[in-house]
Amino acid sequence: MSKSLAIESRCIHLERDNKEARFGAISVPIYQTATFAHPGLGQSTGYDYTRVQNPTREQLEKIVASLEHGTDAIAFSCGMAAISNTMELFNSGDHLIVDVDIYGGTTRLFRTISEKNGIEFSYIDFSKEDVTKYIKSNTKALFIETPTNPLMNITDIEKTAKIAHENNAILIVDNTFMSPYLQNPLDLGADIVIHSGTKYLSGHNDTLSGFTIVRDEAISEKLRFAYKTVGANLSPFDSWLVIRGIQTLAVRLDRAQENALKLANWLKNQKIVKRVIYPGLQEHPGYELNKKQARGAGAMLAFDVDSVESVRRILEKIRLVQYAESLGGTESLLTYPITQTHADVPKEQLEKSGLTERTLRMSVGIENIDDLISDLDQAFNG
After folding, report:
1. Can you give the three-state secondary structure of 4-57, one letter per residue?
2. In the chain, what are the domain boundaries?
3. pTM value?
């Protein structure tokens, strides 16, 4: 498929290799098989065992690699599997610098599994602090999200990549909130891009998936070796679901971020709302930087209300918007990070990041914006 096509077209027409051209199939087939027969001794069809590779999953990986401008993408059973596999690049005694405001599941992995394995971590606010002050002789990687989860801080990817490389480290960027439709960290110097494909790539809250995308062949070989050894691969059917979801990525995100900006401006005028955090608002401290390195502000926002009682009332009274974890689907979801996505984050880390018990995170969907506002209005004032 020609790389000259715009990303909206490439999401639909993908990276077809025409294996099924003789049948005229429009949809990629689901190769629901665990193993593959060989023509003879020393001969192979190119596939041996689905844990290692499967034609449906391989097609998805080509699509995601293309959208992120990488040379290789690896599809995992979920986003946390992708991050766990990435951590196999590091050894006991290595040091990583991590953004203090990241997904709570990532923090849990680092603090309970990676630290047990002898890896050391420093948690800083990349959007405000000087990362060079935290670099050590054993620093092997910097790990960021931008925007961060859930407080939507923006980090300069290009600058951070330069710092990493000057210190013989790599930059890992979790790009889940933006998706490759809005941001391509590899183009800005990142070495590894991670996605929870459960979110915007799949887009319908109906399957789990995760991805790592790279350009460097040596990193790819290490990641794929760990991948086939540990075996956290994405199934053929789930691979097909994500392929289907990607076809509408552009139109979903266009509508969702249009809704998000309107909703953010509405929230600013609500009496019980004390802070609205959305990179598409000009008053956001990362507004100009996000415009420089991304093609939009996304559809995630956070806001603080006046009390825990207001949080409880809102979560109990919303009807169209749903109180649930996750993000990136067609439905609008409200999440209470302090008891859900970030429940296992230590108190000192929460305090440093600024996440409080009055903070709500919203994944804005593609519903009619007036319906979304009406639902929140009755929940705020009911």
Report:
1. CCCHHHHHHHCCCCCCCHHHCCCCCCCCCCCECCCCCCCCCCCCCECCCCCHHH
2. 7-246, 249-381
3. 0.96
